[in-house]
Amino acid sequence: MSAVLTPGGNTPLTSGRVTVEVAAAKALDVSALLVTASGKVRSDDDFVFFNAPEGPGVHYSASGITVDTAQVPPGIDKVVVTASLDDPAATFAGTEPTATVRDSATGEPLASFTPPRLGPETALIVVELYRRGEQWKLRAVGQGYADGLAGIATDFGVSVDDPGPAAAPATHAAQPAPAAPAPAQPVAAQAPAAPYAPPAAPAPVQTPGSPVYGNPPYQAPAQPPAPPSPYQNLPYQPPAQPPAQPGAYPNPPVSQGWIPASVPAAQPQSQPQLPAEPDSWQLAQPAPAAATPPPTAAAPADTGGRVTLDKGRVSLTKGSSVSLVKNGQPLLTSVRMGLGWEPAFGGRSVDLDASVIAYDKHRKELDKVWFMNLKAFDASIQHAGDNLTGAGAGDDEAITVHLQSLPAKVTALVFTVNSYSGQRFTEVAKAYCRLLDATSGAELVRFDLTHAEPHTGVLMCKLVKMRSGEWVMTALEEYVDSKTVRGMVKAGADALR
Fold this sequence. Notes:
The protein is of the alpha+beta class. The protein is built from 13 helices and 28 strands.
């Protein structure tokens, strides 16, 4: 009976020669990469596809990818099978492909896998065949890429001649940046030029609120006297404060209009989601204090001085945080938390387990994902499967979180590692966690344990959703005595205080 796998699930291969077939309602191109323990190919020759159908122990044909595990070189850690759409304009949305792994000699199906809930992806890592000691195993992956087969190949170290598909995300990411400078260039060039002040023709071209263009024409014509007239009608014309307030606030009549007692005191309480505005109304009276904190202070206050992703990968230390924001926009895509460790000192293997606990805004546990429960919230959180030894390079266990699909009630995630085999962390080497972009595979944040304590569990990090919608990652490194995540729930809630 063939095994039906879910994302992250694995099963032993009972045949030394297998064929991986990938079928979908749309035309597909199937390929394979021979990957070393470093996570990269040795050369472009390790990329097997329709134009290069032969690799060591791996063969491409119209029926799929055939792998003869006995012929795969010892330096190859795994064979990654991918699928990309033949139509470059199409996506996998509503078209989930099914991979069937068969015994090449008998045609008997050994396992099958259909990834759930695909969307804008144009290429997909479907499954991977990997070594575990002397045995070969099959793992269901289902990781999507929005930049096509070129994106997958580039991530695994293959040289791609055609940068078109791989460059697409960079083009989209760069679009917001030019948008801001674009209007600034004509303004900066025209502001010093005096010829545009006298004529009325440039007025439709420039934005009426532009301070650079608007100031010169308003000094000479009869327009400047007009604005003071509404100010004289306000109850604040006798004091000397109104002239200072227009300098601090662009719209004095509006901001001053909220100061009188005509606005009930209860009104700010009826709109708790806008705490910044009541503060600015109160600060409207003392002009010197109002010039510093108004609207611009709100944005940096939300990040609390935390580091963002704008300068690339961030390395955290215990207690430090990084805001998952890049180019001013929150990262709301899928992320993967990879956790790794080395076998215990002296060569004895350690069975560590990576898990994640989801909490609501009251720090109440909603669910937890671990080796006994590989997914939660309709697969918005997925565990890639259990590793019993920590042997091999790269992440030993991984948990993928689709941030955009999490229910609104999930406001915090705490990632833990537990020693199921009972050894203390003083017997574990090089434990770390890292956050990756699940689409591109790029490492965003890394946190290495700098010391170990004689306990069987550790809270590695937490992801907390801010009121602005962004997520903030904080390194914890807090030790607890518990062999499984079930004993970590209270400690995780305490870490959210």
